[in-house]
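Hi all, posting the design record for the shared folder.

TITLE: backbone redesign
STEP: 1 of 1
STRUCTURE INPUT:
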């Protein structure tokens, strides 16, 4: 499946810069969290989703931190300030954590969707994979969930690949290996003799993946999805005293997290066609 440029462009568009504050995000997710927080303090009754929105926000921040740390460690190793064995071990662990954080976000997403659905008591509350499977099995389940929420859940056509990799590394003994190229973070995940990652557009060679592009692709897709997610849940929430986006809520950055630069790098590649 060709890499979706429009999703990557949407992800990049959430990061802005001004002369006074530097880099910031004013994404729909940030606005959703602030909208719920401000109005809850004013006594407005919302569905019980505030904590899950916060957890999603935290995990997105964790992914930004993990990928920045990976790039920092690569620079240390490149400049002979980090032992090669430690570099390979640290990087492999961070790549595993990247998958764990990405996966956990979707279970929080599922909890939000279940609680704002048309019939919450008839919608499973057991994670995103269960919700997606349940939705696909019966047409009537779309009515129970709500058409806009159902469309949102089914839009994540890349979730299964990410889930399978995370499940195999966490539960089935798959191993993440990091390779020695000082200008790139190269990896592959093995289950026995099988290579688990094979996305032609972001491969260094037939067996090895460029992590910067891999992470950029999935994180870009995630951010684009969360924009759609926050836009949809907004329509299911009370208006409250404070309007959505009141106070121009922002997530400030001292410097742009490296993963957004990786998304830009991926967008520049000629073979990313769609």
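Okay, here is what came back for every position:
SEQUENCE:
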């Amino acid at each position: 499946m060709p890499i979706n440029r429009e999703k990557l462009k949407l992800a990049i568009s959430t990061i802005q810069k001004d002369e006074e504050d530097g880099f910031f995000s004013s994404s729909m997710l940030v606005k959703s969290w602030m909208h719920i927080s401000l109005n809850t303090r004013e006594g407005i009754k919302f569905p019980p989703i505030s904590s899950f929105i916060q957890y999603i926000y935290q995990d997105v921040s964790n992914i930004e931190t993990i990928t920045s740390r990976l790039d920092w460690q690569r620079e240390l190793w490149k400049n002979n300030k980090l032992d090669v064995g430690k570099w390979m071990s640290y990087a492999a662990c961070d790549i595993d954590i990247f998958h764990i954080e990405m996966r956990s976000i979707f279970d929080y997403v599922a909890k939000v969707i279940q609680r704002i659905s048309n019939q919450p008591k008839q919608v499973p509350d057991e994670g995103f994979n269960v919700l997606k499977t349940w939705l696909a099995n019966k047409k009537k389940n779309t009515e129970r969930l709500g058409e806009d929420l159902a469309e949102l859940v089914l839009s994540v056509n890349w979730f299964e690949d990410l889930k399978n990799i995370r499940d195999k590394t966490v539960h089935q003994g798959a191993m993440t290996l990091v390779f020695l190229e000082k200008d790139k973070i190269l990896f592959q995940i093995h289950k026995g003799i099988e290579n688990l990652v094979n996305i032609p557009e972001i491969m260094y060679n037939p067996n090895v993946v460029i992590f910067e592009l891999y992470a950029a692709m999935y994180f870009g897709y995630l951010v684009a999805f969360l924009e759609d997610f926050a836009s949809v849940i907004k329509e299911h929430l009370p208006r409250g005293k404070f309007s959505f986006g009141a106070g121009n809520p922002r997530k400030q950055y001292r410097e742009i997290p490296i993963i957004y630069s990786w998304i830009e790098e991926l967008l520049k590649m000629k073979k990313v066609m769609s």
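COMMENT: The chain has one domain: 5-12+26-241+248-268.
Let me know if anyone wants the other runs.
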